[in-house]
Amino acid sequence: MIPWTLLDTAKIPGGGELRLKQRGQEFSIMLGTNELMNSRLSGSERALATLSCEKIRDRKHPHLLIGGLGMGFTLRAALFELGKDAKVTVAELVPAVISWARGPMASVFDGCLDDPRVALHEGDVRPLIRSSKSIYDAILLDVDNGPDGITHEANDGLYDFKGLRAARDALRPGGVLAVWSAHPDRDFTRRLREIGFAADEVNVRANGKTGARHVIWIAVNPSR
Length: 224
Fold this sequence. Notes:
Elements: E1 5-11, E2 17-23, E3 26-31, E4 34-38, H1 43-55, E5 63-67, H2 73-81, E6 87-92, H3 95-102, H4 106-109, E7 118-122, H5 125-130, E8 136-141, H6 156-159, H7 161-170, E9 171-181, H8 186-195, E10 198-205, E11 213-220
Parallel strand pairs: 5-6, 5-8, 6-7, 8-9
Antiparallel strand pairs: 1-2, 2-3, 3-4, 9-11, 10-11
Helix pairs in contact: 1-2
């Protein structure tokens, strides 16, 4: 078996360190002993986009906000689903992840960052959400392992009542908040519904039909 090679490390603002590893054509991003993402396992990240885009397919000039660049699978799936009139803003907290996308993992990203529909924001997604009022048709969050985060403690502010209200206010009527998670979380489903979202918890496989089971919440903002 080909051994893993450590390509780079990156500090996470606020603490922690990411490690980018490669084995042949396979890439892995690690935090400690936790593998956050792997280039062979993209099914649930793609589903985050496809399930969201299904809800807003008939909208003109849709604007999506993606929190977390990762390995670009959610972004690429969204661009495939959306028309030429769409705009996709991607917020990535760790600058090195963007450098990896344009460097050693360029083949994985396949040029999606150069799509004219894409606007890349280097920084935390939370200020973008909190400063926005009714401008997004969908907000897709894959910034941690789920509502009970391990990567960045401040991410918890996305998933508490205050954070969910901010996301609701940033969405247009009928817009979608979609959240990726490695595990179920009944308390999070309850919070979504208490805020007023029509929320469904969807189980998906890590690689489409195989692999670990992941969870995606699709929460629709009520029409005003």
